[in-house]
Amino acid sequence: MRKAFLLMTLISILLVPAVAQDGNGDEELFVPVYSLGDQTLRINLGTFFPLFFFGGPDGLEPANLTLGGAGSLVWESYLSTNVTVGVEVGGSFSFTPNFRTLFMLPIAVRASYIFNFYPFEVPVTLAAGVNFSRISDNSKIDPFVKAGGAFLWDYSSQWAFGANLFYWFVPQIYSATSPAGADATRYGNFLEFTLSALYHF
Fold it and tell me: Is the bond preceding residue 119 a cis peptide, omega within 30 degrees?
């Protein structure tokens, strides 16, 4: 009797994990992939679309610039599974009708909220900082705001690939005492479409 009891106890102990696993066979335990302190490096390359300018006595005006190129390097750190903060250094170029080149080099801090649909991620991002612009011999430093999102495919736990769509807002503000005068103030509006390669570490 004692041997039978010990045998039944042993069988029960062995079967409990199997039954528990079978009972939850239709459910997957979600384990966050990233946590506080995890980091990413991202490179973005693609197309730059000048949209329009507004402000000054002429109101809304076309950008009068060609399509160009855009790129950036981004470092981010996770505060939680869904929230990151980081720094972005980017650049763009486009051309005027007489082939002068407009260069813009923004440096910004950024924050993202990430919607996870494994194996996909959709980060929604807001960035703000300063923009260094140059056309011919004229240089200027202005505020810079960038907002948009990305669609990323997690190829592995370390690598992700995808695309970004961002709107740039670049105010070029002149004071009344500046040589150009306050009427020269313009608010630039641009669009960036880039492809991404992202490395988690």
Answer: yes
